[in-house]
Each structure stands twice: as structure tokens, then as C-alpha cells.
Amino acid sequence: MTDNTDTGPRSHAQDNAPQWRLENEQNTLLMVLSGTWQARTGAIPVFPKDGLPKTPDGYLSFQTSDIQAWDTGLIAFLWDLKRVAHNAGISLDMQTLPGPMRQLLELLPEAPDEPVHHKQPHTPLLEAVGGHAIASMTEVGVVSELAALTAKGAVQTILGRSRMRLSDLLANTSDAGPYALLIVGIVNFLIGAILAFVGAVELQKFAAGVYVASLVGIAMVREMAAVMTAIIMAGRTGGAYAARISTMQGNEEIDALNVFGIQPSTYLILPAVLSLIITMPFLYLYGCLIGMLGGFVVSISMLDITAAGYFHQTVTSFGIGQFIFGFVKSIVFGAFIGLTSCRIGLKAGRSAADVGIAATRAVVVGIVGVIAIDAIFAVIADVLGI
Amino acid sequence: MPDQTVLSLRDVTLSFGPKIIQKNISLDVRKGSIFAVMGGSGCGKSTLLKSMIGLLRPSVGEYHVGNENYWAGTDAHRTDLNHRFGVLFQSGALWSSMTIGENIALPLQMFTDLKPPVIRRLVELKLGFVGMLQAIDLYPSEISGGMRKRAGLARALALDPDILFFDEPSAGLDPITSARLDDLILNLRDGLGATIVIVSHELSSLFHIADDGIFLDAKTKIPIAHGSPRDLRDTCTDPQVHAFMHRERDDEEGNT
């Protein structure tokens, strides 16, 4: 009866392994299937691409009575067959398949569309460097524009024509201010204490232990309080702003604001930036005090200084100019952190992973930026002789 | 096979803390049936579904999956039972940092020992069922809402579950896409022999596909009717159910 029998893999020792056999009788092919066809076994054979002879107007029917159990694994095999048969010009006699198999197989295309691929164009190194340079210059421009828009919103708020809500500002301010006191206090206390330790070890050799007070005082007021507080706020508040705004972006909330004609720069960014500009100077002053307290505690316990002596040495060590210098710096840091983190949030993509990327980037840009700006301030101070 | 019960709830009360969502829910889902959970907005349909897929433990009552008491076992036991479930969430809930293909491959990678080419083949098959093969390498953000639903359905099918849960499958879809999805659901039910629980208030699709159901009332917080949507439409005398099934405005109850 069979003049040409093509046999599928029979290597599996178990007798219920999926097996297929193709019987060819003139123009009518018969696919005999038997065994257990379950996807999870991983033993589903692939129907070879050249498994069917090219026979236009050919006909293929099925014999499925020997199948013991099947699931979508069988359909995967039948789909292979359907595609090969389509290419060979053979039509399948679907009526010989049991109803469920037929219904599933009919869902599947015989000539599937090519998958759309993600294009990842390859750019030469020089072009990539140039592209990055242009992109970062553009970014500076965009952030400046955003700053200008935010400032414009601030002016309008003062004139009473703006849409910033006071409740937003209050919520942002309390989050960036009172709730940050504990962590800002701990870090500045430890910084003051560390400075005192380092100073005490060296200065004691020259019997100049009392100058530890000056060292701690000047360092905290000029640099450490402002920079450390800014770094904390970049991690704490900047990251939160970026995550919040990028989540809003993903929920189309920013689009909704734009459609209503509510400027995100006024509604979202202004309260965020303003709250940091308001709280940062206070946190700076608080950081200075706590830092000096840290230095005081270490000095009193390690060195032979009186409390009054430490206090006297501290107040005479720096002038008001240095206070103003630190104060101005902290305001600039606050504005920088607020603006960049909001901008990063607005620019973020719309997936869950993008929120994480935005938050990370906001923290990194905030910390690196704060230190870079501090360096610029140091140069300016040197030139001006502060 | 026809009258075998796969899921059954006995006097179940669902609540968030002291706030009761629904009480006295008893239902039986027969093997191979399409069971509709109906009711107005805010009546606890989705909460009931959540409880049936193991995301919310009922405060009172028993839930059986096959012969097993679902909530009596350990977490690991529940995870095993959950492998019988496939869930299509309301907005697809595709993992946004993975391509569509990777979304469907993940359960296969985690819970089977299949090799990557075999997994790829099964992923293609599942996407082929829902007509989404061309989107295999795209990210969820790059495809439309209807495609996301179909991709979510393909992911629900990943482990060849025998019980499928659909949360509002046709919400937000155009009538043609929605009708196609209905046909697809019927085809999958007949082809895979799966049991389907569907939460929806799309009447046309409920009349078309569902053959059993329960109607939850938001006000009294108890189920007020059992039966297929078609029967409820034609025979149920409860004014609430009648209004719902005939799209009438029920002025005393606000909107239904």
C-alpha cells in the first residue's frame, strides 16, 4: 500500500513518545500521528522544511486515532506542517482532524508576516561622540529654557496670575524640609566629628588643639554643610521628583496637564524647585550648627579645651562673608537639584524600567553636578578673595 | 466531563480590613464553561477575580480548585495550583521592560526545563493563536492597547493552563476587535478545553460567549442572581438585573 514511507524520529525509547509517519499514495498523503504530544516534555519534533514533496493540487489528510494525549505542543508541530504544505502547494484536509485541533490550527497563519525588528542602527565612533556632544549641549539649552519658564511662572505667581497651588508648594516644602532634618542632622554631625578627629590628631602635636574649633567652623560654613546637605537632598528629594514625574509621564498625566493648558513648568516644577530653594538655606544653617556641635563633642572629650574656649574660638574664626558664601551656594544647589531632577523625570520613557533609570540618573547628575558647581564656586571665591 | 466542577466558592466573604466588599458568595464553575462575573461598577467583580487567582484571601468561606482546598495549603502548594491558571489582566499587565516574546517566554523559562529554541517555538505558537506574531520583538510601549490585550492573552496561555481568568477583556477595544477577541476566546475554549472565568460588563460579548454566571449587587453586597447572561436577560425578574441586562437607566439606584 505504501510505496514511499517517510518516518519521523523514533529514537525515544518510551513507546508513548510523539511519533509521526507520512504515507504517500499517488497524490494523497496521509499523516499518521501517535504517542503523547505534550509541549512540556520538550520532545516535540520539528517538521522538516523539505518534508513534503512538491505536489501542486496535492492533498494531505490526518490519522490521529493513536494520539494518547496532546496539548499545544501538537499544534506547534501541525503548524510547521501547515506552513510547509502551503509552500509545497498541498492543501490540508482539515475535516480529518478532531474539532479542537482543527479550531486551534485554523487560528494560525500559514504564511506568517515577518516580525518587525527593533532597528539598532550602528553609528561610527566619531559620529557617536559628536552626537553625544550635540545632545548634551541641547540638554543644557533645554534645562535653561525650563529654568526660564519656571522663573516666569514664579513671577506670575507673585503677580497673582499663576496656577501654582500653594498646597503643592507646602506639601513639597514639608517633604524637603522638616522630614529631611533627621538625616541632614546625622550626616552633618558625623562630618563635624570626623573633621575634629582629623584636626585634633595633627594640631595637638603643636599644642594648637584649640584651633580644631576654627577648622571645624570654617570647613562646615564654607564647604561641608552646603555640599553634604545638597548631596543628601539630591539623593532623597531629587530622586523622588524624577521618579514621581516619570511615573506621571507613563500614566499620561503630563499629557493631561498639557491638554488642559496647565504648564507642567508652573504646576509641577515650580513648587518642586521653589521648595528646595526655600528649604536648602535653612538646612544649610542647621547643618552648620549640628556640624559644629559634632566637632564640639569630639573636642571636649578628646582635647583639653573648655566649652567656652571652643565657643569663643569658633565665633572668631569666620566672618559673615563666609556665611553668605555658603548660603548662596546652598540656594544654587537647591535650584540645580530641583531643575535637573524634574527635567530628567519629564524626559523619561514610559515603562517601569524607565522610572528606575530616571531616578538613578537624577541622583547621579545631582551629586556630580553639586560637586562640580562647588568647584566653580571655589574658583570664584579665590578670584574675589572671599 | 460536562458537569464536573473545577472551581467552587462556598459562602465566601471578601473584605479589605473592616470594609466588606461582597458576602455570601457561592458559585460553581463547570469544566469547559465560560463563567461570567457581572455587576455594576464598584460591586466587587474584580475583587472576586482577585480572590479566585490567589491575590486576596477571603475573610470567610472556602475556595476549592478541583478537589483541593485552595487557601488551606501552603504558599508553595498555591503556586502549584496557580500554574493551572492563566490570567489576562485588565490592561494586559505586560512587563514593560521586556519584549512581547520575552514576556511570554518568562514563565516557560522559570517553570520548565525547555531549551531556548523550543521555548521560542512555543512563544511563536501562542502569539500565532492571537494573531500577533509580527510583534514578537516589540516592546509593550510600541503596540496599541488592543494588541497589548491580545499579547496578554498569549502570555496567559504560556503554560497551557486549563483555567483562564479574564478581567474586562473587551474594555477599551473597538467593536470589531472586541468581537474578534470573543471568537478567539470561544476558539481557545473549544480547542484547549479550558474553563474560562470572565469579568465584564460588555453585554453583547457576554450574551455571545458566556454560558453561566453570577450577578453581584453593589448596594446589598451579596450576589443576587445566578445563571447565564442570556437566561438572566430573558427570565430574571429582579429589577436590578433586568435593568442591567436591558441597559435601562435605573433611577432609584443611580446608574448601573
Automatic annotation (TrEMBL), chain B:
InterPro entries: AAA+_ATPase, ABC_transporter-like_ATP-bd, ABC_transporter-like_CS, P-loop_NTPase. Pfam families: ABC_tran. It comes from the Bacteria. Gene3D superfamilies: P-loop containing nucleotide triphosphate hydrolases (3.40.50.300). Keywords: ATP-binding, Nucleotide-binding, Transport. GO terms for molecular function: ATP binding. Coiled coil: none annotated. Residues 7-243 form the ABC transporter domain. The keyword Oxidoreductase does not apply. PROSITE patterns: ABC_TRANSPORTER_1 (PS00211), ABC_TRANSPORTER_2 (PS50893). This is Polyamine ABC transporter ATP-binding protein.
